[in-house]
């Protein structure tokens, strides 16, 4: 066989694998969510259950997303497991697992028409597994004492599978998404002072949706990346503090994490987890696909002071500088209100947990 034929055969096999994953994503998600629930409940009673049982569950379950908030107590709960004291765990992790399970059922009931919660959960699973691969690989190289090499290598392999499945599914969703078209020929938009005009043909996300994007994504960036700051070399942390001072230390870490977050998601999927929940995505004002340079321009322009609130104007600053905007995707009205109710309920749970812990702390 020639190289062209071999390459063509590989592409056919890869497309076949991708189609199998996409067509069976409900069963994959159901397995992931149920095993995560079982393993999380078992982990709560890890002091009383046999160690071999926990090892078996760890092998067959999908690693849960450990959502923390800089090791603060605002989103935690405590419970008694022994007579000697209590154990404190993140309350955000079980909430995510339950949301993943409910989102999976809604995805099936709606016949794949309502997938905002489903996509949101897979996007977090993608990001958490990707960072876990990097962290565990570093642990494998450095030889961390609390891991055995075979088990650590297995966890890395399992995370790679999760990343691949999540990537394939989210990419397929992006390729099949339909944007809400504007009536007529569209809207003429001035993007700069030179008088250049672009014609927007799709309905833009509302100002309140853009605000919700900002709040959710900022919250998720901290939750997904905060725990890894404690694994950084102490010498690097000291050097960073000495260079920028205590005042800008957190800002530098957030700058690095948010840059990775926005560039990665908007490059690969043209959206972010926050935009998944609002059923919106990033589009080009001009004809054609968004370039990587435009994504970088969007991300870096977010560093301009108070830029995050510029979208309350006619055109947001990072939209204007990158010639991009955020547009609405079509949704099924039959199940849309149900998804919004579920999200509002979970948001209320998170808020109540924070308020209760805040009152206990102070």
Explain what this protein looks like in three dimensions.
The protein has 362 residues and is mostly helical. It has 2 domains: 1-177 and 332-362, no CATH class; 179-329, no CATH class. It is 63% helix and 9% strand. The chain has helices at residues 3-23, 25-44, 51-60, 92-109, 116-142, 149-176, 207-225, 234-268, 273-278, 292-301, 317-322, 333-361, and strands spanning 76-82, 85-90, 187-190, 197-200, 280-284, 324-328. The strands form 3 sheets. A two-stranded antiparallel sheet has the order 1-2. A two-stranded antiparallel ribbon has the order 3-4. A two-stranded antiparallel ribbon has the order 5-6. Strand 3 and strand 4 form a beta hairpin. Helix 2 (25-44) packs antiparallel against helix 3. The longest helix has 35 residues, at 234-268. The mean pLDDT is 81.
Summarize the structure in short:
The protein is mainly alpha-helical and 362 residues long.
Q: Can you tag this structure with a few keywords?
A:
two-stranded antiparallel sheet, 63% helix, 9% strand, mainly alpha, 362 residues, two-stranded antiparallel ribbon, 12 helices
Poorly predicted runs are: none
Task: Give the terminus-to-terminus CA distance.
Answer: 72 Å
Overall geometry comes to globular
Report the radius of gyration as a whole number of Å: 22 Å
Major beta sheet, strand line-up: 1-2
Q: What do the pLDDT scores average to?
A: 81
Number of domains: 2
Number of strands: 6
* Oligomeric assembly: single chain
| Structural class by secondary-structure content | mainly alpha
Biggest β-sheet, characterized?
A: 2 strands, antiparallel
Number of helices: 12
Helical residues, percent: 55-70%
Succession of helices and strands: HHHEEHHHEEHHHEHHEH
Instruction: Report the sheet-strand fraction.
Output: 5-15%
């Amino acid at each position: 066989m020639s190289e062209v034929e071999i390459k063509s055969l590989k592409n056919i096999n890869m497309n076949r694998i991708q189609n199998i994953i996409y067509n069976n994503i409900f069963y994959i998600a159901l397995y992931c969510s149920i095993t995560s629930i079982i393993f999380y409940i078992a982990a709560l009673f890890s002091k009383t259950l046999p160690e071999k049982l926990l090892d078996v569950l760890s092998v067959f379950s999908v690693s849960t997303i450990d959502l923390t908030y800089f090791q603060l107590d605002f989103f935690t709960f405590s419970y008694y497991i022994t007579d000697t004291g209590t154990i404190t765990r993140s309350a955000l992790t079980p909430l995510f697992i339950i949301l993943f399970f409910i989102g999976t059922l809604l995805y099936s009931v709606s016949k794949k028409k309502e997938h905002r919660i489903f996509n949101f959960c897979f996007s977090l699973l993608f990001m958490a597994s990707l960072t876990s691969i990097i962290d565990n690989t570093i642990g494998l190289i450095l030889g961390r004492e609390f891991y055995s090499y075979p088990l650590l290598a297995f966890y890395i392999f399992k995370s790679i599978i999760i990343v691949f499945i999540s990537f394939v599914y989210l990419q397929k969703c992006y390729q099949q998404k339909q944007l809400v078209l504007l009536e007529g020929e569209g809207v003429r938009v001035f993007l700069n002072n030179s008088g250049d005009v672009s014609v927007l043909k799709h309905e833009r996300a509302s100002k309140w949706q853009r605000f919700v994007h900002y709040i959710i994504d900022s919250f998720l960036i901290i939750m997904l990346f905060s725990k890894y700051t404690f694994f950084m070399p102490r010498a690097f942390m000291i050097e960073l503090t000495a260079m920028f001072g205590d005042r800008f230390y957190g800002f530098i870490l957030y700058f690095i994490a948010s840059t990775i977050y926005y560039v990665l998601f908007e490059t690969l999927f043209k959206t972010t987890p926050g935009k998944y929940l609002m059923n919106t995505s990033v589009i080009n004002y001009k004809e054609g696909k968004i370039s990587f340079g435009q994504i970088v321009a969007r991300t870096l322009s977010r560093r301009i002071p108070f830029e995050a609130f510029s979208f309350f104007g006619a055109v947001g600053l990072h939209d204007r500088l990158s010639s991009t905007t955020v547009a609405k995707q079509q949704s099924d009205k039959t199940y849309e209100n149900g998804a919004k109710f579920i999200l509002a309920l979970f948001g209320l749970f998170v808020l109540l947990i924070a308020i209760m812990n805040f009152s206990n702390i102070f």
